Amino acid sequence: MWWPKMATGGVHGSQQHPLKGLAGQCQAVLRQQYWEGCWRSRSQNRYQKPVVDGHSSTLLTVRKLILFLIYFLLQASGVQVADEVCRIFYDMKVRKCSTPEEIKKRKKAVIFCLSADKKCIIVEEGKEILVGDVGVTITDPFKHFVGMLPEKDCRYALYDASFETKESRKEELMFFLWAPELAPLKSKMIYASSKDAIKKKFQGIKHECQANGPEDLNRACIAEKLGGSLIVAFEGCPV
């Protein structure tokens, strides 16, 4: 069977790529289902020797689909992360003593996307919220953040969450993988398989959220990610 090779950093020689084993498991299940179908037909006195019919055609189609999925997963595993993405993360993570004007320029939220050639994770132009915008041009920063996410495509994001527990008020970064139901399958696959690449650059983030729709981004869900019953307020609103 043909297995696509990665452009760089691939697995060569006798070492087996983990996705190869996954495909083998899928094919084993498909073969089992096929033969079970033949035995069911036999029990109904209409068993036939396997030939190139509808069942075989379906198996071939699914096999091609498996190879198609693996191809894109292998390609996605080589995705790079732009230096600007790393710089923004560092600036959001490290809270230096700053002047009021510098604090206003701090980023409250930033959205990242794949470049046009799908080879690099970059900052999406114009998709950010500054601390200075909150309470001036933006009333509810989290609602505004959710509104910036596309309905039919995937994204990564960093959000500087402000919340309160029963003991104190905190600010901590959250990492989001946005993969809505209406996003193309190819986009979902690449973003999901490239997530580790960007997470390796975001060392020290405590909170992660994968959202597949607006229902995964309500305040109750976010509070659960941040600390569950310990959270009493998120972005100034009770939960």
From TrEMBL:
Residues 78-227 form the ADF-H domain. One of its GO terms (cellular component) is actin cytoskeleton. The keyword Transmembrane does not apply. Belongs to the actin-binding proteins ADF family. One of its GO terms (molecular function) is actin binding. Pfam families: Cofilin_ADF. This is Destrin. InterPro entries: ADF-H, ADF-H/Gelsolin-like_dom_sf, ADF/Cofilin. One of its GO terms (biological process) is actin filament depolymerization. PANTHER family: COFILIN-RELATED. The keyword Transcription regulation does not apply. Keywords: Actin-binding.
